[in-house]
Amino acid sequence: MKRLLFIFCCLLLLCDTHAQSGRKTLSFNADWRYHIGDVSDASATEIDDREWKQVVLPQAWNEDEAFAKAIHDLSANIVWYRKKFRIPKGITSDKVFLEFEGIRFGGEFYLNGKFIGRHENGVMAAGFDLSDLIDRDRENILAIRIDNSWSYREKATNSTYQWNDKNFNANYGGIPKNVLIHFASKIYQTLPLYSNLKTTGVYVYAKNINIPKKTLDLFVSSEVKNETNKSSLVNFVAEVHNAEGKLVKTFSKKFNLSANQTQQLTMNSALNQVNFWSWGYGYLYTVTTKILQDNKTIDAVQTKTGFRKTAFKNGMVYLNDQVLMMKGYAQRTSNEWPAVGLSVAPWLSDFSNGLMVKSNANLVRWMHVTPWKQDVESCDRMGLMQMLPAGDAEKDTQGRRWEQRTELMRDAIIYYRNSPSVLFYECGNESISEEHMAEMKAIRDQYDPAGGRAIGSREMLDSKLAEYGGEMLYINKSARHPMIATEYMRDEALRKYWDELSYPFHKDGEGPLYKGVDASDYNRNQDSYVVETVHRWWEYWKMRPGTGDRVNSGGVNIIFSDSNTHFRGKENYRRSGEVDAMRIPKDAYFAHQVMWDGWIDPDPKGLHLVGHWNYAPGTKKDVLVVSAADRVELSVNGKIQGEAEKRYNFLYRFPAVDFETGVLTAKSFTKDGKLLNKKELRTAGEPYKIRLTAQHGNNGLFADGNDMVLAEVEVLDKNGVRCPLASNTIDFNLDGPMDWRGGIAQGPDNYILAKSLPVEAGINRVLLRTQYDKSGRVLLKATANGLLSDSVAWTVQPIKKTENYFVKESTENLPSFLERGPSPEKPTLVQLKKSLKIRAATAGANSEKAAQSYDDNELSDWVNDGQLGTAWITYILQEKSDIDEIDLKLNNFRSRSYPLQIFVDNKLVFDGNTDITLGYCTLSFPRTRGEKVTIKLKNAPFTAKENKQVEMGGKKLDDGVARNDANAKGTLSIIEADIHQVLVN
């Protein structure tokens, strides 16, 4: 009886909403069945599918393999899906649409045995209009044949897809994203689904943004179809609600809709007292666009969006009028979890993406393919800017495969153009031709002309059309469009490997070769990983905005979380993450918190004490501290240790500190001795007890078959201190209406789906997933031999359901992250250096090409003729100036060192060898006034470090311009030279 009453209430809710708006959207995720393997006539209505496996979406059919298998071993097959459904009682809408947020890879769709279309790009959303095909009085059967073959070919052209790649695009097959059903009247606003439907939906944008006055002109444009046989006079209304739900603006305009026509309805109004979206400030508005006929709402669409002002100029990114150095992660688009893949609960997307923001990242660059809707909307809430690709692999392409890329970019722009977090559209993971750049730019200009988003590609160093560029593993500078490193650190490290002196005693770099060369960088321990993390960011930071006219605009570290994608180390998955696959932080995560806590320069209070303090008696340990302060002090049980070696601006190394049971303390200070921060590490006792905690979304936990609980287990001593060397095996027992998905650890099959698994470094996590339409109390227990056990309980809430439709409440009322607050009002850019303009240059050889060494084009260089006597170049400044330093990008910068002399007006000011860098070395000398600067090669350059790192295909990493100077004895090659006067030390 209670269940019937509940269903009746749901029906009332459906009918009431329909009566008010003429539109209803429900989840279409429930009651699917699937069969692995091709089946003859599986699209037929009469086929018996009772023995097929039941599933609630989103869920990949091969999800059990996530992290158990290497990416290239993930299963591929033909899988048939079927769903039986009726039109819900009380809904009389004329139009019925299905929205698939994405399938993997190519699908053929059938309704009641009739073929209704294909969707083949394996990435983006697609829509289907069922209005004239559906049986409104009987049961309907939707059948889909999905092929997730790695070599899937487009049916019409026999072309493969460039992004269906075994290196980066984890193959979670079938329907791993949500499916929605939309009911609307014959006069309706279209959906932003270009594939199949060829419609563009609602576009909300702002012009004349004034940040200080908090004003803007708000434009609302909606594609509206009138599928009736008569014209109709309608009132187009926009209602704007702020994040608190308060109605702050209403405006409207009348339009005459012609019969059987599609029209673009556009209107605008001023909006005042605007809260602007910003980094770490995911302030969102809800814009409801309504179509009213005779004062009755016949259609209404809600668009979540935010407003911000952007500019991309002078080599820098501007957000809300302030310069922002980009910093963050190049994250695999799958953003996956063990035994789940990408199909996580909505709150878990916020949890993961929010961790990026809490590490002080401001940008995520999704890699190679467009992310799914859930991650894009999550970044909106978290205040995390996005670099959004369409789809590609590692290079430009031609013919049909290029057309596929442009079509995917079009679909992605239409689908995501209302998301304030999208700041960049990425056209390729490698440079593309200017002709192709023009095509992509035209697509952006057609579908998102006012969104304030830059379009570009990796590299594009000499492009006149791209609005941003950047490289993979080296540094660029520019005075034109911003240069943002798209992935700058590949090193890998397991979270459990602290150092060489404590369990499990991982010698840094120990592991197999990769493609026949040393792979130490891919088998680091945590101490070494932190050092590399700081070192690499420092190289970008020292070329930051404010260091002259030509600057670097930041970069993203590959990757954020350990990933079931291409790997180079010992394990069968990528361990480049700053957090592991369960999002447990590594020490490098906290290093980023310190270095990235600011728009350009970090907050000096940032401090992190690396590692743990649990060693054998007599151990001498190099202690690392990451700090943005001027001075750091270290003590053991109150005894001050010696002076630190400061490296890379942020890293303090205290050598050979004697271990002593107790407390290790780091304090940071200003130059004048003011205490800024304090961090401690305490020696833990023997493992004594388990602590088990659990979390789910702040909006509740729902029986929708996809909501999740993340449970954390720790091993503690008697005083409640986590035991950082503990590796106890934990046995879990689950009682209640949830499914076990488990966690990950090093061992057989990576312990995927195991109900007993070890903690690593004293901690681990597991996932549990709700069952469809099964609510109630859940109890999770954790036990281990010799330890006190623990348990935790929670309750799964019922869903609002009628037949096999439901309201997916787990997607509703998710809170935004607002902790960083609005954009700063005071200028973030401090001009630290002045670029001294070069009027002309002469050289010992090839003088006609001397200007290529300062032309703001990093694909060109000046080089002499290989003779030591001609290995010099002289720059003539526009005016006599005080000169302090020179930034040089020299060919073979990754491997070659050059013995150089620098003269200012014939006075020797520098004599030494250049450092190996990711691009630019800075040569500093006492301030000298002059007009001519000569750079001279003193002796033959030499290999300071062999360039051993290789790409996936075996190609060595880029090391300068496309010319091998490695064996030249008298060659000086300068790609770019910047001469500076230092303004602020």
UniProtKB/TrEMBL annotation:
Where is each Glycoside hydrolase family 2 catalytic domain found? 312-450
Q: Which residues form the signal peptide?
A: 1-19
* Single GO MF descriptor: hydrolase activity, hydrolyzing O-glycosyl compounds
The answer to whether the entry has keyword Signal is yes
The UniProt record lists the Glycoside hydrolase family 2 immunoglobulin-like beta-sandwich domain at 214-308
Chain ranges of the Glycoside hydrolase family domain: 697-792
Q: Kindly state a single biological-process term from the GO annotations of this entry.
A: carbohydrate metabolic process
Going by the UniProt record, its keywords in alphabetical order are: Glycosidase, Hydrolase, Signal
- Recorded superkingdom: Bacteria
**Span of domain Beta-mannosidase-like galactose-binding:** 77-164
> Which InterPro entries does this one have?
Beta-gal/glucu_dom_sf, Beta-mannosidase-like_N2, DUF4982, Galactose-bd-like_sf, GH, GH2_Domain-Containing, Glyco_hydro2_dom5, Glyco_hydro_2_cat
Per UniProt, residues of the DUF4982 domain are: 618-674
Q: Which family does it belong to?
A: Belongs to the glycosyl hydrolase 2 family.
What is the name attached to this protein's record? Answer: Beta-galactosidase
Protein's organism: Sphingobacterium athyrii
